[in-house]
């Protein structure tokens, strides 16, 4: 709740249009709806028409996800986006709601995608074939949030010519999401070539001393390239969300 | 080297204005200058007039830093910015060059600061007083790169009213740099309040199980707020650089 | 065995009512009963009538749990409380004993709950929906030990208004149990708002660099709020027990 | 800010005694004072007369500590307590203010100690001689906050008779702070003997695989005794504060 | 191969009873037999009649274990002892050989146990019920190697009277194997009470910050009691073997 | 792309035989083929006739592996080698292509093995029986790349005579691959005996504090023997490839 | 306190020779003496004439060490042994007491050494020259406790012939202490050669991935040799004490 | 000792030219010389004339280093090479022996360097300026062992054109040593470009989550390029030794 809204609320109290008890209540109750006894659905501040609401599916039962989705749609939300959605839950929800499920990215969408907007293109690059599921989570998230996305998969640093052969895409991006497991060097090399922000996503791809993505995570945090920041291991959603925020920053 | 420059170079070869041997040499030699036998100074692709060149001072002798700075200034660079500059080196350089040294942020500037540009303000917030040196490195970096910076220090989450009392600054930012040690919760709370990108900087402030900033780093990587990405522990420079890149993204 | 009991025992020996050999035996044998060859059931010192005996179910076979429960009930114990009880074991025990099983908290109760006592209310708060099983273990434990419990779920710090909207519950608590995974910031924020002891419970909720709850654990240990102490990852029982002990401290 | 104060503030706006702009300002500015540009001194909600204000000295310059202390005393605060205060800073402050410095616990007090209050005694126990500085930080903190403290030093578990020989103190405590390095077993043994809350403090005492207190920390988190919770490595202050909060819980 | 045997071999060469080529061959080939192409069965130096040969079953197929056991029995070995033997492999071997399988300790024996020998008794103590499988591996190993074993289970430090009630067994032991998970404090307390060597065995019993036995391992390595040494997590066999070696040291 | 090829390409442009646009395209497109949308098959620079192309099977679906293999064979490749190939995928591929599957090393070959070449023999040694699968991956890789391989299995350091009994093989090797789990000491001992390069491969064989191969990895990195370098845990392929590269170094 | 002593005490109470209050007091006070307010000196149960009392010097001030030593000598103790004694403290103590200081092992002795006793020799072996200080702590400890010690330094596994050249010492030992840093392989190799107990001592010798002795510690815990147990990093004292206990086990 | 030498020794015994006792002695004593009581100098098996003997200086006193060097030179050794030699020790040795000290690589040489031999050139590349000391240790080691070395410093992956501009050196190398701190990506990129063995050396250059070189180490172990193996953090010597061994492999 920002200062402007607070002053407005207090003004309503001052001019008698809002009793103080109701104002206190409003301050407490307004921003969320209870769904059963397991979640408080957050109807965010500045949500514009057509922007999807997002459900993080991990650790929720299929019944909970369905309940939350229905509450959102019932509040007038046009599009609902679900991440970390396993197939079984997707099929359960499909019986009730018109969900489109993407098995690679493990995401589901109810409603229409918004048309691409923002300053330019979001490029999603991966080091290898095995990083694609995480990259797709990032790419689909960015698309759902209204971005044109370009995919650049399997351009890992041990075959640097594959990356150099795609320099035009790198140079044309507004934001780049660099997804890599194993030694996690892709963001450093891309960060040195590009002059736009790079969001680095370590993946848990690898074995032995990759320690489930820790090796890639550390490499990315220690990148000697400037303009690189990092999200959690396998956090494609977080990268896609951050990229979209940057790509739409001028509109704010 | 992007596709456009490559095609142009090849055209010069095709029309006979550039012999192939020279072209090969140019491809190899053009982008950097050797300084002594210890560094290759990188004269970046698209550097516009007036944008400072940056020297990372850690692990370099004072003589090496001076040598690199002179090479840069000799190449026509108007402003040189040095990070991780210890006082002793700063005083050594001052004898030869008009360096202004900032002891808190351990940075030095030779030449003039560019006037603020970009889409809006960069807010730099810290959890506590001890995080200020890292925050200043971020703030000064952003200023050197042409950003208006607002400082919001000592607004840690254990006294949440201090943060809420500054909601107007939070809401007016284009990018927020959230700097915190100990439990590293500041970026999560700010990320939930703001609707702009948040760059999280863990600091090595703390003791015991803070493990030199690891506790804060992990907390930030696991932030449940969307729109948060993370840089290395104590990496104020990286955060400032990333923030500036985002703030200037529309100009690219 | 405290000093008072020891002096009393020695007095009995001194006045001839207890032969020394029997006294030595009593010192050794009194405080526990053997159950089969796999457990020594501890009949605690100062146990008052009506306070439940507790069985930690993890790592015990269903037959062992049943055996221990029967021994306790046979010793005159009115209520038996079992934690970390998997469904299969619960169903096995139900055939013999009138067990009530709570699937969310994975706990079982044989016998009646004591009426709430203590100084005031125990509040159990969670950061998200996925933390509820651990929170329920804490809440049920506190209830079994004679406390009035208030649940405040899904009030994580990335939507700080949800927490602030419940300030009255926070301010009315005698003890607060703050349960959170991921970045584990909830106890810090609550600790800054409340003026009662906060027991922090990290959960293994999260992925990637949450390392099974380690990120949350470290954040909580490094809390910059005063009046916060921490129990093991997912240790809802420990938090509930500690909270009850504090809530009943005046009675001791 | 609790619900009661909020309603009162809003009532003042409603009855015209407080203009809405001032109310908004008050909501933002009231709870803290700025000291220089490096700290926001928190004048807490319900502070009763005579309760000391606390300054965490680590990471602050001696000038900053002096500045904050003066601001506090200037606000009418009678007693100021400083932790993690190094000797050099103490001597600097002594020139201006009547500070009493305790070298073992590295704490300083300006003003008078409050008389002991609370439900009973706080016992502070250590495993060895080397744990005493941390234990003293806990003990002095508890004393400063109005508790009677009993010290029980060098009663480590490898000589269990030393602990058993002090059973009367263990049994008479309202809260016990168990401080130990190395294998960190003291809280487990005390937790099994006592029937009051035990605050465990791991210390960085040890070498090799003690990893600066990590071994003791892990042992304490994994304590098989109920009623044990843990604070950060070497965090004597946190333990003393928590113990005082518990000891005064009935007064709240 | 010790010096004595080497001199004897060389003497045989010197006096012509052994051709040098055969001697070289003997030096190379004598100490082991090849079994299939997957193992070299080690016919140890000083093995006395009646001492069992040991097979470490983990990571070996049931066919490999059977093959090695047959080779051993075929070499005149009277007793074969198999550790880390899963039930399925045990049943497979039983079809061919008279194996006795112990499901708790996951060990199998083919042939007769030797009568107890050595200086005295080996006591095996555990902190809890869940540590029993590891303790049984230790106990059975010691029995197989010719030791009288006393079991003292569920005497963990959070109920110190259970341990003190068994002081006579502790005082009568020649070697004590202390097995514990969670905080791993048992060896420290026993080490302080007993005046014989204590072999500490951390177990992977626990959850959360026990990290699969690491907490217990670190605690044991940092034991403040003298006369304690440690084996690997869950390594009951290693402890039993070491204990037997110590108990038979006078016979060597 | 090396300097020689670049100069040649530029010469073609200079003499008009290659239009600049095509040259730019060639620079981008030549080195790899797209397979579906999931992989870029790398047709390496200097590949000589008869040298196998390699597919890393882990993290790829059986359909993807088959697709890549067909593309390679379609490009004229005579032999294709697949590592980390699970049985199910192998059987799927066998339906279409003449694959020979090795279950121990989890590798598959399509086409003929090259005859052994190189400077000498590659010896593959293991500490125990359980290390054999990793060792076989190394051995088969080396064979596929044209090396004569000698296997020396189960020669771990706790029975040093088994290793000493094979000194002739150690002394005759050109490169030794030393594979070991648990304490990982084999490369150190071999490195002290041999005077050729030793490639150390830690395996995840072990339990408890072996931490999935970390103990062995650390031991090998800390080897006090000279001439030892290390690959990732369980990376038999990497060791075999490196060994082959060394064995064929004179041919380059 | 063992059962026998307890019965005797109770008998004294029963026959009237000891009043119960005094008995209670005796149970509490007998086993230790207070020294100042910083230590409880433990006058152990079964201490025979001539056996030295031991002070662990680390973390104690020179004044504290002197105070404890004087208390011990005042109690009739003939020999006092101090470990982890820095030179400065040694020189301080020398002014008052006839201390002999050993700079390599950082130990001091006041009084006479006992003549060697026990079953046989204790061999102390090291991997390298840098491990000698830890080895000397072990060796001197064993000598002080009445053992004949044989030193076997710089026999690391990367030059296995140095170890094999000393097989006669290895074979004649009753207990072997194997001290090594870096890869920590020495105990495994010795454990495979010897048939007596091996106490492994990891040292913090090494750099990089030795992590202050962790690599050696893990290697030793994972030793594939039987009859090896481990003490803390750099814990020469613990190893010497354990070795002496084993060597004197028959006397108990 | 290889089989051939053993057979020869045994033949001498068989034909009477060598008494068996002397043979046993020779087997034990021949390969090393004792220096004082702190080191066994290893006079290696196959050392050819002119190859330097190496002393690892870390953890040795200046007197010990001097003593070992004199013993070596006294045995007829022409060149002695000392690594990890601090300036103070170097100056001490210079008083007695004609040592040449290299401050950057912290190495010293007594005697003449051998002329370059081997199959080709060893290239030593670094990611940054701060990696140069480790790289110099590698380079000087390789030179001392008879290799022509090419230095390629400051060619890190965040400015990939610097590396690509040196492709001719990369393509002409027989072995490449890739030295990098921070994200440690250099070996992966070089490994993908070169077709010779790459020895990766992680350095402790970096801060925060570089953890003293662990980030770089993990990245290198997880390299997706084939033909890369890794040595310990900062182990320039090990890399130089391994590289030389590979470069001279054909001569063996």
Descriptive key words:
homooctamer, 252 residues, alpha/beta, Rossmann fold, 5-stranded parallel beta sheet, 4-stranded mixed beta sheet, 11 strands, globular
- Helix content percent band of chain A: 25-40%
| Assembly of the depicted chains | homooctamer
- Largest inter-chain interface? A-B, 41 and 41 residues
Tell me about the largest β-sheet of chain A: 5 strands, parallel
* Ends apart, CA distance between termini of chain A: 17 Å
N-to-C SSE series of chain A? HHEEEHEHEEEHEHHEHEHEH
What structural class do the secondary elements of chain A suggest?
alpha/beta
User: What is the level-2 CATH architecture name of the largest domain in chain A?
Assistant: 3-Layer(aba) Sandwich
Report low-confidence residues of chain A grouped into runs of 5 or more.
Answer: 28-32, 42-50
| Average pLDDT figure of chain A | 85
Radius of gyration of chain A (CA) equals 21 Å
Taken from the alpha-carbon principal axes, the silhouette of chain A is globular
User: Helix count of chain A?
Assistant: 10
Percentage of residues in DSSP E strands of chain A: 15-25%
Count the E strands of chain A.
11
Strand ordering within the main sheet of chain A: 8-7-9-10-11
Q: CATH topology of the largest domain in chain A, which one?
A: Rossmann fold
**Overall tally of domains of chain A:** 2
